Amino acid sequence: KSKIYLSRSYFQGDVPFIEIKQSDLIQLLQQATYQDSQLCQIVILEFVDVVLKKNNEYQTNFIKLLQQPLVNALNLDSFQSPMVVSTLVSIARKMNLDVDSRLLVAVCRNHSQCIYDGILKLEDSESISEEERPAKAEKRKLSTPQSTWQSLSMLYSLLEESDMEIGVYEKYLTA
Q1: CA–CA separation, 51 vs 66, rounded Å?
Q2: Percent of the chain residues topping a pLDDT of 70
Q3: Closest by alpha carbon to 99, among 60, 126, 130, 135?
Q4: What's the pLDDT score for residue 141?
Q5: Which domain of life is it from (predicted)?
Q6: 174 CB contacts (<8 Å, ≥6 apart)?
Q7: 16 lies in some domain
Q8: 139 versus 18: which is more confidently predicted?
Q9: Quick check: is 126 in a domain?
Q10: How confident is the model at residue 124 (pLDDT cuts 50, 70, 90)?
Q11: Looking at the 3D structure of the chain, how many domains does it have?
């Protein structure tokens, strides 16, 4: 105890309260995101989560505001960074934005690092819910490239996941 007391003899009273401002933490986080693209993606997706959880009125406006620019950005071939494309697809998934399944397949073909994000988006989309599973007579109509199921099957084929590809095809696309 005397050793501890000696090392603390420089200060008498309560231990000083050290305050770190939120702005200082945000500046450090901002600098870190410039250096690490994966951290940048995480920060952006967390920001989207916070905005979506804020309130319903702001959420609907935010979704309407981002819908078309995000789809337009995915249509651009100028993105060289797969991380940017992956972030855009993840934002579309989190916000439940309507993105054409053919566009997702095309994007994932160009940026193979985004295939998992594309699969998650298609699996999470409302158009692929079990309730909308087609009747046998309708299955032939769904074999067009526009089908969300076929797009999902194509993404699995890009990953060379033949079991998943065949499973989706047999369950939803064949009579």
Answers
A1: 12
A2: 76
A3: 126
A4: 46
A5: Eukaryota
A6: 139
A7: no
A8: 18
A9: yes
A10: confident
A11: 1
Whether the Cβ atoms of residue 166 and residue 129 lie closer than 8 Å to each other? no
Read off the pLDDT of each residue in 83-111 and give the average, rounded to a whole number: 89
Hey, CA dihedral for 164, 73, 96, 90, is it positive or negative?
Answer: positive
Q: How far is CA 93 from CA 5, 33, 104, 108, 120, in A?
A: 57, 22, 11, 14, 7
152 burial level (CB within 10 Å; 0-12, 13-18, 19+): buried
Separation CA 47–CA 14 (nearest Å): 38
CA gap 76, 73 in Å, rounded: 5
The stretch 86-103 carries a mean pLDDT of 89
Local structure of residue 15 (DSSP, 8 states):
P
Range of the domain at 128: 44-173
Classify burial at 156, counting beta carbons within 10 Å of its beta carbon; exposed 0-12, middle 13-18, buried 19 or more.
Answer: buried
Residue whose tokens read 């158009």: 127
Residue 104 is encoded by which pair of tokens?
């997702």
Supply 76's token pair.
């651009």
Tokens of 54: 């804020």
How far CA 154 is from CA of 70, 95, 131, 161, in Å, comes to 22, 23, 22, 10
- Using CA atoms, how far apart are residues 126 and 96, in angstroms rounded to an integer? 8
Judge whether 56 lies within some domain: yes
Residue 20 counted as domain residue: no
> Could you give the angle at the alpha carbon of 73 between the alpha carbons of 70 and 77, nearest 5°?
155
